[in-house]
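job 3f2a | input accepted
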Amino acid sequence: MIKELIYGCVTGILFGFLLQKSRVIRYDRQLGALRLIDMTIVKYMFSTILVAMVGVYLLKDLGIVKLSIKSTVLGGNIIGGLIFGFGWGFLGYCPATSLGALGEGRWDAVWGILGMLTGAAIFAEKFPLLKTSVLKWGVYGKITIPEVLGVNHWIIIVLFVIGGLFLFRWFEKKGL
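job 3f2a | predicted structure (176 res):
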């Protein structure tokens, strides 16, 4: 238990440090991403996803970790994504960057953090109702892209990495 807490603390500090050093917690970067004129945040997030894909599946294949896939529920994903997007567009910070911005002393981020806490409380309060309505829309179970396509996960990972490299190169050529 203590070991996991230490790992979590170290990786959290490292993640926050990298968010700050890459300047993705800056309001101008957030606004640029929302306006599709600055892809710094997109590059940061997509590179994180690519590294995680390789790392998680490598650890899985080596038998070090076991995957715990959550069920795909379109109703919850779509409504949650709309709420997330509205909050990000309204405030100019996503959840991680609002915490990083507060850490840098930008007090406007407190509104986003309060919004997240309020949203979590409302979700917890309304969960019984949501469980019988929204969370029943488009339930596909525990699926992954490789399972849906019936291919080995490394094929998908390699395609995503190659696609990501081409995308990053295109962003750089366009000055994004």
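job 3f2a | The mean pLDDT is 91.
job 3f2a | closed
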